[in-house]
Specification:
Keywords: ATP-binding, CBS domain, Nucleotide-binding, Transport
Order of helices and strands: EEEHEEHEHHHHHEHEHEEHH
Distance between the termini: 33 Å
Protein name: ABC transporter ATP-binding protein
Helix content: 25-40%
Bound molecules: adenosine-5'-diphosphate, magnesium ion
Number of strands: 10
Shape: globular
Structural class: alpha/beta
GO molecular function: ATP binding
Largest sheet: 6 strands, mixed
Family: Belongs to the ABC transporter superfamily.
Strand order of the largest sheet: 6-7-8-3-9-10
């Protein structure tokens, strides 16, 4: 579905992603993990062209991503981030409906889709549809952010530390919801985190980045039981 071939990204002459080769299969849940500054967000943003890569090739559904119009690419890839970015003067319904509105879906279809997504994310439509973001808890805002990313039924869901700012209980609940969405819809998901437990519990495949390079990728079990370097062993073995 998404294929990186020897991809590099430079900022001010310095490579922050180096020679990255990766495949993300249709329906696979990939977690990019690594310490702060390891290049996770940059890697994710290269997929939907929020950041343009400098070297190598990235393909989506078999075509180089430059072949798609940026707006078409982004419609096919939902994007949810930690700092949510909900529009403060729009209701929950209007926020979730952002992309369907742009696509000029009929009103009734938008309304049905919003209802469906709110149910999927366990937000009671009767209670929350007309609320504004400031009338929601952090966890509820994150749910709206994920619902918005799913609104146009994108083939790919990209998430950058989507639960980063939440308390452990809410975080656990939302992790379960994302796992359930993955099972229900078999959507290709790429999630960035620095949380080891989150990576181990959600991923089909984990990619460990350090200093812009892939150190190891594999299933959670492989990462734990067959670390290729002491760095990998220490990373997954550390207690925090
Ligand atoms: P992570 O998400 O793993 O914390 P990032 O991909 O955000 O890492 O950043 C990787 C490196 O690239 C960091 O050193 C960061 O400072 C640098 N970087 C990211 N975005 C930019 C930018 N727009 N301009 C310059 N440097 C950047
Ligand atoms: Mg980041």
């Amino acid at each position: 579905m998404i294929h990186f071939k020897q991809v590099s990204k430079l900022f001010a002459g310095k490579a922050v992603v180096r020679d990255l080769t990766l495949e993300m299969a249709q329906g696979e849940f990939t977690v990019l993990i690594g310490t702060s500054g390891s290049g996770k967000s940059t890697t994710l943003k290269m997929i939907n062209r929020l950041v343009e890569h400098d070297q190598g090739e990235i393909t989506f559904a078999g075509e180089p991503i430059e072949k798609f119009r940026v707006q078409d690419l982004r419609r096919r890839m939902g994007y949810a981030i930690q700092s949510i970015g909900l529009f403060p003067h729009w209701t929950v319904e209007e926020n979730i409906a952002t992309v369907p509105q742009l696509l000029k879906w009929p009103k009734a279809k938008i309304r049905d889709r919003v209802t469906e997504l709110m149910a999927l994310l366990h937000l009671d439509p009767a209670q929350f549809r007309q609320r504004y973001p400031h009338q929601l808890s952090g966890g509820q805002q994150q749910r709206v952010g994920v619902a918005r990313a799913l609104a146009s039924d994108p083939e790919v869901l990209l998430m950058d530390e989507p639960f980063g700012a939440l308390d452990p209980v809410t975080r656990g609940t939302l992790q379960q919801e994302v796992a359930r969405i993955h099972q229900l819809t078999n959507r290709t998901i790429v999630l960035v985190t620095h949380d080891i437990d989150e990576a181990l519990s959600l991923a089909d495949r984990i990619v460990l980045l350090n200093d812009g390079q892939v150190i190891q990728h594999g299933t959670p079990l492989e990462m734990l039981t067959k670390p290729v370097t002491p760095f990998v062993r220490d990373f997954f073995g550390r207690s925090d």
